[in-house]
Amino acid sequence: MKRFNFIITVLFAGVFFSCNKLELSPPNIIQDDIALGTDDGVKAYMATLYNNLPIEDFKYSADNQGTNGFNTWNIISTLSINTGENANRNNGGFINPARGYFAEAYKEIRNINYLLANLPKQGLVPASVAKWQAEAYFLRAYTYFALVKRYGGVPILKETQNDYAGVDPSQLLVPRSSEQESYDFIAADLDLAIAGLNTVSENKGRANKFIAAGFKSRVMLTAGSIARYGTPYIVGNVMLNGIPADKANTYFIAAWQAAKLLDGQYSLYRKKWSATDRLSTADNYAELFLDTSSPENIFVKGYSYPESVHSWDALESPQHMTSTYGDRFCPTLDYVELFDGLPKNAKGQLNTLNADGSYKVFNNVRELFDNAEPRLRGTVLLPGQAFKGLNNDIRRGTFIESVDPSVPVQKFFPDDSKTNYTTLAYYNANIKQSSDNRPGVQIPIVLSNGEKILPAGLDGIQSGSGAGSVTGFSGRKYLNPNLTVGATALHMSTQSWIEMRYAEILLNRAEAALEIFQNGGAVAGTDLQADAYNCINDIRGRAGAVLLGSPGELSAASATPLIAGGYVLAPNRGQQIIRIERRKELAFENKLYWDMIRWRTFDQEVNARTWRRLNPFLFSKGAVNQGTDYILGKYIFDCRFDERNSAFTFPVRNYYEPIPAGEVAKGLKPNLSN
Predict the structure, then answer these.
(1) Residue 218: how many CA atoms within 13 Å on its side-chain side?
(2) The whole model's pTM is what?
């Protein structure tokens, strides 16, 4: 059998821990009684391990050459570009996120294995050794999961390898394990972590018993999905990719049980929630991502100025709310249409038309969304929405003053058209737009009363290659409302990244429960369908969404088509409801990409897919400026495909990433190729 050679150099750079910089030499050089002989020494060692965890956070990019995708400032190409959550003017197609995260993972694993093997030898009290080892098991599981969700079965190293003189080189050659063995190894590490960790983290950002349990629910849910929906790939009697289908319920039960351990330990954020005030409920949802005291936070990666910063606000804010970049966070109409409270047609799409095919005229730019589920407004900045003392000033164009809003305007193009507006004579004669929305570039419309109106607003939808939203929406999630425009610049953001929160645990629990229930499994003493129902209604209640009427709505009936050109695919209606809820709740958190991978729906949902946008048009007749970024006037809204004709396709081969060629060359192809 051909084997894989791991000769890993251990390099420790400067470590920030409790604001103190500590230089550490490689542990095979420094005396172990210094590095590992005291709790402070172990704490510093651990700080490096945490610093190198593969957390897909504010600094994770799906397209950044020269890195593994981690720890980069340039997050313009996020995973959400591929899933339809988000669109921006920089990306016209699928972005392959395979950045070759492999050797760096095994460096981390070697350092963890070294700690596990050598810590008991240094004279620390047994209780302290057990505590640190349990934490190390969590870190090893976290790192292996980053590998397994990318590659399937990987080589499992439980001990430190040494390339010393006299060591038999064959001992360094480790074959790939099966995907099932890899998940079972992660689960075993997490069980050790759960058993050995305290219920409360000793420092912010470090693991505890419930963090390990919550993470296990994520890992086991993934394994169950691979078993149920994946396709096995076997080489030499080893199922490198895929898990036997008869193991699915075993993993789903493990996921449900792990999620259940967090019962009563965390709760959904409701500090501003109101049963009667939609805006308060929307603000409540937005603020849960900024409140470091949130009872929903489980595992959090902190940032602080100036030593540890990111650039989320500068890159993702609307154009006129940032001093640098901006407008790379543009939720698609496809995503917005998932929410309750919007007027929709028979296809589940936003309806902005009268029965005769003419556009409905709205009294202001905000009216269309007056009854929307509050969570939408907490996630997305809608046209005209107020944010940090400004307004999302977003239009595709403005009718000239001679066009009366009381005269019906027929829909410009059929729903499936991607034709540019400027091919239409009526449009050219009656609507002004801008190819570049930067300040000082747009040519304003001058009204008869002397008022001036920018055709596309300060954040409006671009018609060319200039700045501005490309979908009719901007993002809100994680944006800091307290940053001034001047301070909204690169490397100035310090929001914490919430890697795991209780809403995800409830969603994991609901999905696992329904998978078990619908596929003949059981958990003693539990009505699993009712448990899934309660979890989903807890999420929907906090969101201000319409509650499910009964557990029976999570049925095995046929799934319902939702969006023309593509559906939220699921094996049945109950699972579809849960998958929609995950998309609404976890969007822009780098979770949905991996959901679509494990469900094996990506290649069907994103196949020559063009995302849709909402185009607001203002009637300048009767319009009144109410500040620099809000104009009160009549509006119509045109829903259509992005006429840039950017088509996204997820290749089937991307369900697993290729192991980097340089790593394959160290071993032999039958074991490592996939």
Answers:
(1) 27
(2) 0.93
